[in-house]
Amino acid sequence: MKKFPLNFLWGAATSAHQVEGQNIHNDWWLAEQNLALKEASGSACRHYELYAQDFAIAKELGHNCHRFSIEWSRIEPQEGEFDASQIEHYRKVIFELKSRGIEPVVTLHHFTNPAWFSQKGGWTKSNLRKYFLRFVDKIVKEFAAQVKFWITINEPLIYSSHSYLLGVWPPKECSLFKTAKVTFNMAGAHIKAYRIIHKIYQEKSLEKPMVSIAANLQAFEICQPTLKNKLALYLRHKLYNLYFIEKLLRKKSLDFIGINYYGRNLADVRSWKIRSLLLDTCSYNHHPLRKNSLGWDIYPQGLCKLLMSLKRYNLPIMITENGICTEDDDLRWDYIREHLEQIHQAMERGVEVLGYIYWSLIDNFEWDKGFSPRFGLVQVDYQNQKRTIRESAKKLARVCQSGEI
């Protein structure tokens, strides 16, 4: 029996564009209408209307926290025009969580941007960060009294790489220079947002908030012990897992480290070019592991290794996302249980972990992959929006309620 602390946070996550539906003012919606993506988000899970029902399920499942995002393009659909009714909507969302004893963990940027912001150049232009910071200032002033945990930006390196290096997300560009620029601008925006959030809490005489990013970390391993692979391993861990976190730590702008973890990246480098060193993976199924429905390697022990590598920073850590898309619900439970065991092992070795947030509460729109990947603890029938609690969710509920696995 493995016991977790009494104050441990247990929950699941969503993001606005993936679940709300009809986010008509952002850049993803625009790309979807232009048929630039496989599927359009459309009504998604209608969570914008059904959030109270979804939070009732979360409460039934023993969750005491919930991570969600506030859609910037709803708040500011046109430049400088703020929609008071949308601010009130998110006030009700937070109230629904708090009234059920569920701690809100609020994300301020989860991949989508207002269309007007993107059309100006978005994150590629340093002088446009002021717009995001204005949004942060407005939202935090509205909700500071109800929210303790803030995630400024979700997976900044996934955003910059998928949008500007790999070119699979809007605006579908392939530029190493722009990738670096966007990464730099997001880091700068977080640092300033961190200061803004803390200043607001100080001015309102509120208890200090807990502010972080949600960094996507991978367990990098090598296929064969070649010199190219060893260099790739060093570079990937340093640049992908640690660069952003260390940059923010140097500026003293993290109160905890939020990490999203899904699995292994098996390096098998085919040339000395930088793109190969950073991106090439084994395509021969060497060292095979179980996989999710998108073909990602399931590697629970990698999470413990990563947590141990972060221990030296002396900050608490929150698992802000960890989950699996699969049609095999037994595999979903195995995935959750094995990752919780690895988290517990790291905690026994001195790592302070604040909580575990599964991705995701409900099935949703998985970006360029569309609706087919099923990550949810709760199944969604997209024809009638019926929610069905999966067995894996019930098993996790017993852990949430007892604090034991």
* Low-confidence regions: none
Integer count of domains? 1
What is the percent of helical residues?
40-55%
Gross morphology: globular
Q: What structural class should be given to the helix and strand makeup?
A: alpha/beta
Give the averaged pLDDT, no decimals: 97
The CATH topology is TIM Barrel
Distance between the termini: 6 Å
Write the element-wise H/E pattern from the N-terminal end onward: EHHHEHHEHHEHHEHEHHEHEEEH
Which homologous superfamily in CATH is the superfamily?
Glycosidases
At the first level of CATH, the class is Alpha Beta
Number of helices: 14
Name the CATH architecture: Alpha-Beta Barrel
Give a quick account of the main beta sheet: strands, pairing sense, barrel closure.
8 strands, parallel, barrel
Q: What is the number of beta strands?
A: 10
Q: Strand-residue fraction? A: 15-25%
User: What integer value in Å does the Rg equal?
Assistant: 20 Å
Strand line-up of the largest beta sheet = 1-2-3-4-5-6-7-8
What report would you give on this structure?
By secondary structure, the protein is α/β, with parallel strands linked by helices. It has a single domain, classed as Alpha-Beta Barrel (TIM Barrel). The protein is 43% helix and 16% strand. α7 packs parallel to α9, α8 runs antiparallel to α9 and α12 runs parallel beside α13. The longest helix has 28 residues. It is globular, with a radius of gyration of 20 Å. The relative contact order is 0.14.
Question: Would you kindly provide a brief summary of this structure?
Answer:
The chain is of the alpha/beta class and 405 residues long. 43% of the residues lie in helices and 16% in strands. The chain has a single domain, classed as Alpha-Beta Barrel (TIM Barrel), CATH 3.20.20.80.
